[in-house]
Amino acid sequence: MRPLEKIYWLRLALGLFAALVCIVYGLVTGSITSDFSQGFVFGSFFNGTSIALIIYLFSYYIIKAKLGASVEKPQKIMTTGIGIYLLSWIVFWVLLYTIIAGPISPPPA
Fold first, then answer.
1. Phi, psi (degrees; rounded to nearest 5) at 36
2. Which of 19, 88, 90, 94 has the greatest number of CB atoms lying within 10 Å of its CB?
3. pTM listed for this prediction
4. pLDDT tens track for 49-63
5. Which ranges of 1-109 does DSSP label H, i.e. alpha helix?
6. DSSP codes of every residue in 46-68
7. How far apart are CA 27 and CA 11, in angstroms?
8. DSSP state of 9
9. 15 pLDDT higher than 80
10. Buried b (16+ CB within 10 A) or exposed e, 25-52
11. How far apart are alpha carbons 81 and 60 in whole angstroms?
């Protein structure tokens, strides 16, 4: 497998990991709740976005140290897989958030 393909699939896995970290952070801080009477909490969105960006930037430096010599253009390390990272992060984050904080329906009467 070529280095850019490795980076692409690694970013997919990191998007899933970032979504899990966002969910765990939301559970620990109590920002994930099924009480939507106060509306959407923008703090949890901004915290999740910050966590995802930090993980992406952290992965850039690790990948650059490990695979930097085998990639022909160093700037390709930053841009390869950014779309799949963001897409996988937001899809898995929304999915997990919905499962955890979704409304609990009462049992049928």
1. -100, 25
2. 19
3. 0.83
4. 999 999 999 999 998
5. 3-29, 42-67, 75-79, 82-101
6. HHHHHHHHHHHHHHHHHHHHHHG
7. 24
8. H
9. yes
10. bbeeeebbeeeeeeeeeeebeebbeebb
11. 11
